């Protein structure tokens, strides 16, 4: 299908987009408004208490971003008038029936106008609370499907999932649907509705205990998500609940075209609306920024493994092409993977080499206006080497600090507690990402470690020694 045909499809179409303030959705909205100004209307579902708040969020979190500079240059002072004509921010929430839209007249209008529904709303935290993740990623998808089914002119439901619903399979991952109620590891007893009941029962037990705090409830729900995911063969709560969402859609879809899009790791834009637009520090960006700032000392993972990344604008292009291609095509769900590992595989070792080469020539300038000198990262290619490294560089110095702190009547409790918490966080992160560290499939991901914790440990030990005349030589790299 050519570009003219794709743009022609968008002409005079009305599209509902959930998760509209998310990274990918913003790029999607900007692209449509830029390339097809004759689109009829974009309904953008935004979590807000009312339409005024939804409009404020849209302006603050979408329009005011640099992402919209091309549109600002094109329309100038007329941009707001153009947006008023083409965009309607809607206060709502996919965890509720009718997407939480309270304005009955607006709902009726949406049901009469909408041609395409794009579901981009999700929680992407690997260790999200199980109740939150199931409500958004699983039953939220069901609510979006039910809403789309009420749209008189519906031509397509496009659901954004993730390639990592495939779990830990080795080799090439095919674009296959997940059979309803079938666990990845073939464990019996996966019942999506019962998962909801299990959560409700657990929450009742937690609230029944007078000693329960909000923090303890959150921790319990996070642990429960990981436990349930692991039981049925998925590595974390995010991919588990996204897989369940796919199952629900595949099971309930009837007379409506459904396409499930599974992108891999989404990175900054490649070309449009300009190269390199990113929002926040995401996945791979954390590695690059942390390394450039001198906060990374080692990398945990197989340097020969492939990291599958795809620029956000390429994902958006795929979304638009899919809409034009599959609208009004009645069939069972169609699934697309959008990634790079098959046609353009990128190995971790090249990422590490490129990072070292770049920051050696273009060092990060710190807050003191001094260049940060980076060194090549130490690669830990097994869990055993990681455990040795952590023991020598982190746990041993921490034990020394603990002993000194006890000797000095706990004068350094705050320092010790802070460092202990950070190290525990790193270890929890390892446990969370462990299934991906040495994966050999085409969708493997990464984990990395820093960090400044080691420097803080060393500095703390030196400070304690100096203040108390203790002959202590801190551990060195």
Mind explaining what this structure looks like?
The chain has a seven-stranded parallel β-sheet, sandwiched between helices. It has 477 residues and is an alpha/beta fold. The chain folds into two domains: 292 residues, Rossmann fold; 121 residues, no CATH class. It starts with a helix and ends in a 9-residue tail after the last helix. The radius of gyration is 25 Å and the shape is globular. It catalyses: a long-chain fatty acyl-CoA + 2 NADPH + 2 H(+) = a long-chain primary fatty alcohol + 2 NADP(+) + CoA.
Summary keywords:
disordered C terminus, 477 residues, seven-stranded parallel sheet, globular, 2 domains, three-stranded mixed sheet, Rossmann fold, alpha/beta, 11% strand, 49% helix
Describe the secondary structure blueprint for this structure:
Elements: H1 3-10, E1 14-18, H2 23-35, E2 41-46, H3 51-63, H4 69-75, H5 79-86, E3 87-91, H6 104-113, E4 116-119, H7 130-149, E5 156-160, H8 192-208, H9 214-231, H10 237-252, E6 258-263, E7 265-267, H11 283-292, E8 298-300, E9 309-311, H12 312-326, E10 334-338, H13 348-361, E11 378-380, H14 383-407, H15 413-437, E12 447-449, H16 452-468
Parallel strand pairs: 1-2, 1-4, 2-3, 4-5, 5-6, 6-10, 7-9, 8-11
Antiparallel strand pairs: 8-12
Helix pairs in contact: 1-12, 2-12, 7-10, 9-10, 14-15, 14-16, 15-16
**In total, how many domains does the architecture comprise?**
2
Shape: globular
What is the rounded distance between the termini?
Answer: 56 Å
Largest sheet: 7 strands, parallel
CATH superfamily name of the largest domain? NAD(P)-binding Rossmann-like Domain
What's the CATH class of the largest domain, please? Alpha Beta
Number of strands: 12
Q: Residue share in helices?
A: 40-55%
**Number of helices, where a helix is a run of at least 4 consecutive DSSP H or I residues:** 16
CATH architecture of the largest domain: 3-Layer(aba) Sandwich
Average pLDDT score: 88
Q: Kindly report the CATH topology of the largest domain.
A: Rossmann fold
Structural class by secondary-structure content: alpha/beta
Strand content: 5-15%
Radius of gyration: 25 Å
If strands are numbered along the chain, what order do they take across the biggest sheet? 3-2-1-4-5-6-10
Order of helices and strands: HEHEHHHEHEHEHHHEEHEEHEHEHHEH
- Unreliable sequence segments: 442-452, 470-477
EC number: 1.2.1.84
Catalytic activity: a long-chain fatty acyl-CoA + 2 NADPH + 2 H(+) = a long-chain primary fatty alcohol + 2 NADP(+) + CoA
GO molecular function: alcohol-forming long-chain fatty acyl-CoA reductase activity; alcohol-forming very long-chain fatty acyl-CoA reductase activity
Function: Catalyzes the reduction of fatty acyl-CoA to fatty alcohols.
């Amino acid at each position: 299908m050519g570009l003219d045909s794709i743009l022609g499809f968008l002409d005079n179409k009305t599209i509902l987009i959930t998760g509209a303030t998310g990274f990918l959705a913003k790029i999607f909205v900007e692209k449509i408004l830029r390339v097809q100004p004759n689109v009829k209307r974009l309904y953008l579902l935004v979590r807000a208490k009312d339409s005024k708040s939804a409009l404020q969020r849209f302006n603050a979190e979408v329009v005011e971003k640099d992402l919209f500079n091309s549109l600002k240059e094109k329309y100038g002072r007329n941009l707001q008038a153009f947006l008023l004509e083409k965009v309607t921010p809607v206060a709502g929430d996919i965890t509720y029936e009718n997407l939480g839209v309270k304005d009955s007249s607006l709902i009726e209008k949406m049901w009469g106008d909408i041609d395409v529904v794009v579901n981009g709303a999700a929680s992407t935290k690997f260790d999200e609370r199980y109740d939150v993740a199931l409500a958004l990623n699983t039953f939220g998808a069901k609510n979006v499907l039910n809403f789309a089914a009420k749209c008189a002119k519906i031509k397509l439901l496009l659901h954004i999932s993730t390639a990592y619903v495939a779990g830990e399979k080795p080799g090439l991952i095919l674009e296959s649907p997940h059979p309803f109620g079938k666990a990845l590891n073939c464990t019996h007893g996966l019942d999506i509705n019962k998962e909801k009941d299990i959560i409700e029962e657990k929450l009742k037990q937690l609230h029944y205990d007078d000693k329960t705090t909000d923090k303890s409830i959150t921790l319990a729900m996070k642990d429960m998500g990981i436990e349930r995911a692991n039981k049925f063969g998925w590595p974390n709560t995010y991919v588990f609940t996204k897989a369940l969402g796919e199952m629900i859609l595949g099971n309930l879809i009837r007379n409506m075209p459904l396409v499930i899009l599974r992108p891999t790791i989404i990175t900054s834009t490649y070309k449009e609306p300009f190269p390199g637009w990113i929002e926040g520090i995401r996945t791979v960006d954390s590695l690059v920024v942390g390394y450039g700032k001198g906060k990374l000392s080692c990398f945990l993972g197989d340097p020969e493994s492939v990291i599958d990344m795809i620029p956000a604008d390429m994902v958006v292009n795929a979304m638009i092409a899919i809409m034009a291609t599959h609208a009004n095509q009645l069939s069972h769900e169609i699934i697309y993977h959008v990634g790079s590992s098959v046609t353009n595989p990128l190995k971790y070792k090249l990422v590490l080499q490129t990072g070292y080469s770049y920051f050696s020539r273009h060092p990060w300038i710190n807050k003191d206006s001094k260049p940060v000198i980076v060194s090549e990262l130490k690669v830990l290619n097994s869990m055993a080497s990681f455990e040795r490294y952590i023991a020598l560089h982190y746990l041993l110095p921490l034990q020394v600090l603990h002993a000194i702190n006890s000797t000095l009547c706990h004068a350094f409790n705050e320092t010790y507690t802070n460092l202990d918490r950070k190290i525990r966080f790193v270890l929890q992160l390892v446990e969370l990402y462990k299934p991906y560290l040495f994966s050999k499939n085409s969708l493997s991901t990464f984990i990395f470690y820093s960090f400044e914790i080691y420097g803080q440990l060393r500095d703390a030990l030196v400070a304690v020694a100096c203040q108390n005349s203790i002959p202590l030589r801190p551990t060195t790299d």
